[in-house]
Design a protein that fits this description.
mainly alpha; 4 helices; elongated
Length: about 120
């Protein structure tokens, strides 16, 4: 595979991972299921206008991205379930403390312009 294609695929991989990370940090990834991922990959594939000799590398890349997306979704779901189980055991004051610490970690709160300083709607 030529160096240019390696650079293109690397940039695409990094941008895909970055978008997923940003979306995850903002609770947006819950709206992006496997269909969203597939649509993005298809759009990227069409934009690249791959040649036949590039398809083997592209298919390997697609497979890796799909596996990463599935792993991310499973990890997110497991973490959310674990957090919900913990929250059900905490007092209201403990829940407030945990939410506050979670918001600080995610860069939310008064310093970031969030007037409420809470994680309403955040289900991580």
């Amino acid at each position: 595979m030529n160096k240019r294609m390696i650079w293109i695929l690397s940039a695409a991989l990094l941008s895909g991972v970055s978008v997923a990370a940003i979306a995850s940090n903002h609770g947006m990834d819950k709206h992006h299921d496997g269909k969203y991922h597939e649509a993005r990959i298809t759009q990227l594939e069409q934009s690249l206008k791959l040649q036949d000799k590039q398809l083997e590398a592209w298919n390997a890349y697609k497979k890796q991205m799909s596996e990463m997306a599935q792993t991310h979704e499973k990890n997110r779901d497991a973490m959310q379930a674990t957090r919900q189980a913990l929250m059900s055991q905490l007092s209201p004051e403990q829940q407030k403390t945990l939410k506050s610490m979670h918001d600080e970690k995610k860069g939310k709160g008064k310093d970031r312009g969030d007037k409420k300083g809470s994680s309403e709607g955040c289900k991580h």
